[in-house]
């Protein structure tokens, strides 16, 4: 999942860790927001 969000890794290091804890629906919302 983190591989699909390469921009979130360098910009928010702890965003990547939260992505692993959050469900897929939250990840999809973040991707659509960007």
What does this structure look like?
This protein is mainly alpha-helical. The chain contains three helices and no strands. The protein has one domain. 68% of the residues lie in helices and 0% in strands.
- What is the residue-averaged pLDDT? 58
Structural class, from helix and strand content? mainly alpha
The count of DSSP E runs of length 2 or more, i.e. the number of strands, is: 0
Low-confidence stretches: none
- Rg over CA atoms: 9 Å
Beta-sheet strand percentage? under 5%
Approximate helicity band: 55-70%
Short account of what is shown:
The protein has 34 residues and is an all-alpha fold. It is built from three helices and no strands.
Q: Which tags fit this structure?
A:
3 helices, 34 residues, mainly alpha, single chain
Helix and strand arrangement:
Layout: H1 8-11, H2 13-21, H3 24-33
């Amino acid at each position: 999942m983190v591989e699909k969000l390469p921009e979130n890794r360098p910009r928010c290091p702890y965003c990547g860790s939260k992505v692993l804890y959050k469900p897929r629906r939250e990840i999809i919302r973040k991707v659509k927001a960007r």
